[in-house]
Amino acid sequence: MTAKIISGTEVAAQIREELKGRVVKLKEKGVTPALAVVLVGEDPASVSYVTAKAKGAEEIGMHEETIRLPADAAEEKVLQTVDKLNKDPKFHGILVQLPLPKHISTDKVISFISPEKDVDGFHPVNVGRALRGEPCPLPCTPHGVQQMLVRSGYDPDGKHVVICGRSNIVGKPLTAILMQKKKGANATITICHTGTKDIGYYARQADILVAAMGVPKAITADMVRDGAVVIDVGVNRVEDKTKEKGFRLVGDVDFDAIKEKAAAITPVPGGVGPMTVTMLLMNTVEAAERKAGLAK
Ligand code: GUN
Q1: 149, 83: one domain
Q2: Gap between the Cα atoms of 78 and 33, Å rounded
Q3: Of 116, 150, 185, which residue sits at a domain end?
Q4: What does pTM read for this prediction?
Q5: Whether residue 120 lies in the annotated active site
Q6: Does residue 205 carry a catalytic annotation?
C-alpha cells in the first residue's frame, strides 16, 4: 500500500479561504480582527514562526503587530507588555512566542495573558475549559491535527488514537480535544511517553498514530500497522550541508518507509506546520467574533 499524502498546505488553504469571509463580515461590523505577537530574543526558529504568523494574518485581512523585545529583557518588561496588550481593545488575540529566554518564567507570562485573548489556548483557565469540553480557544497544533483528520476523511470518532508525546503544547491538549463526546472527536486515546516501556506495542494498535516527541524518525515502520493513518507533528532541524541554510526539516516518523504501509500520512514540511498558523488565525477571528457578538 502506498499512503495517501495528507497535505496540511491544502487543508490550511481551504480554512484560510473560509476565514477571509469571516474577516469580511467582521469588517462590515466595523471590527478588524487584530493579533499581537510578542517575540523575546532572536531564536531563528521563533523568528521564522513569527514571520509566518504575520504573513498569514495579513493574507486573510487581519491586523497584526509583532512586538520585539531583546533577549535580555527583564521578566517585568514582558509582563508589562502583556498587560498593555490585555488592556488594549484593538487586540483580540495575544501570543507570546515560546520558548522564552531562561530567566523568564513561561508559566507566569502565560498566566498573565487575559484568557479571552489567549489565542494559543495555553492559559490554565483555557486548559481546564478544553478538558471539560467547554467553548474556548484550543491550542493551535492539536486543533490543526483534528481539522486535518476530519477534513481529509479520517474522522477520529470511534477510532483508537495513539499519541506519542505528552507535551502541554501537543500531546496533552490533543488528548483533551479528541476524547470529547463531540463531532470530530469521540476517540479512544492511548498516550505514550518517555516512561512507556514499549512504544511499538501500543503504536501498532493505533488506527490513527500521532507522533509528537521531537525526536527525528523515532517512529519506524515496524511500529505502524498496515492501513494506519499517521500524523507527524515533529519539526526537527537536522544538519544538511547540501542545503543553503545548512539544515533540513525532518519529522518524528520515518516517512519513506512508513508511506509504504500506512493508509495516509502527513509530510514534513507541508503537513501539520501550516495548520498551526491557520488555527491561530482561526482563534483570533473567533475571539473577534465573540467580542462583536457574532460568535455561535
Ligand atoms: N513555539 C512553538 N510552538 C508554539 C506555539 O504553538 N505557540 C507559541 N506561543 N509558541 C510556540
Answers
A1: no
A2: 23
A3: 116
A4: 0.96
A5: yes
A6: no
